[in-house]
Backbone:
């Protein structure tokens, strides 16, 4: 059992090690380079989301190909709005795109499965574009507050690091000493020990690197934001598990050895980085 755990963790670690330089480089360069990476990631997410949706084709009048076609342009437009005009441009555009999806469905004159198909497209727009768009907002936040560009790079590392350390801690502690299940049908392998270990890893990381990357945060604020991001990441992981379990799928794809698909690797960040952005905007820069 120990050998099996070591092999699984080794594959996960090596895969993460290969992906990390690309993330760090794009985050450091920022601006349109980071936007391009976020856009590419979102398209991978759309591909995997469409693949999961294809498992429900029997109950839908259109399959995953239609879902891809319906969401591709709206997704690109919405992410572009986040880069070009921030939340002030993205928010109204999101409303317009949702209305456009409604109108398109009306004009299709296809009644069968309308409720589920419309909901699936709105879910896709929120999950695959609105949430990743906040990564762009976070990377651009320093410039909006007349701070050095490197500051936003550090904020991005800080937020992502808290989440990744939480995921790592939950996996390690849960695998080693996890004995008491959380009792969640969505993710039955999660344990109380893993949850506590993940939170501890996040808190330690946040406290240790606070002075280096976010010196304007007090210790209590750093522990608060670490707790918020860990909880958000935990529910992000559960939400993706819900999507997969609904179609009886273990992974969203087999893109990344040891992790599954892009959704499997980034599910926690999809929920947590938007929380971090709004924490900084409304708490730190509220004045």
Residues:
């Amino acid at each position: 059992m120990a050998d099996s755990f070591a092999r699984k963790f080794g594959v996960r670690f090596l895969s993460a090690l290969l992906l990390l330089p690309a993330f760090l480089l794009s985050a450091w360069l920022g601006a349109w380079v980071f936007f391009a990476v976020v856009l590419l990631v979102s398209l991978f997410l759309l591909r995997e989301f469409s693949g999961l949706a294809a498992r429900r084709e029997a109950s839908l009048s259109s399959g995953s190909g239609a879902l891809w076609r319906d969401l591709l342009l709206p997704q690109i437009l919405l992410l572009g709005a986040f880069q070009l005009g921030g939340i002030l441009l993205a928010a109204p555009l999101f409303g317009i795109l949702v209305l456009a999806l409604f109108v398109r469905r009306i004009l299709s004159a296809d009644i069968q499965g309308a409720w589920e198909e419309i909901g699936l497209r709105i879910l896709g727009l929120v999950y695959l574009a609105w949430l990743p768009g906040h990564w762009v907002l976070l990377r651009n936040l320093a410039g909006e507050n007349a701070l050095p560009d490197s500051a936003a790079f550090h904020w991005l590392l800080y937020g992502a690091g808290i989440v990744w350390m939480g995921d790592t801690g939950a996996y390690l502690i849960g695998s080693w000493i996890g004995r008491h299940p959380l009792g969640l049908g969505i993710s039955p392998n999660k344990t109380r020990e893993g949850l506590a270990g993940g939170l501890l890893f996040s808190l330690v990381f946040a406290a240790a690197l606070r002075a280096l990357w976010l010196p304007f945060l007090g210790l209590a604020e750093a522990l608060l934001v670490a707790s918020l991001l860990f909880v958000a990441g935990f529910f992000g992981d559960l939400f993706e598990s819900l999507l997969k379990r609904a179609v009886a799928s273990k992974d969203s794809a087999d893109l990344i050895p040891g992790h599954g698909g892009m959704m499997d690797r980034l599910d926690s960040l999809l929920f947590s980085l938007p929380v971090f952005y709004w924490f900084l905007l409304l708490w730190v820069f509220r004045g």
About this structure: Residues 77 and 115 are 24 Å apart (CA to CA). The mean pLDDT is 86.
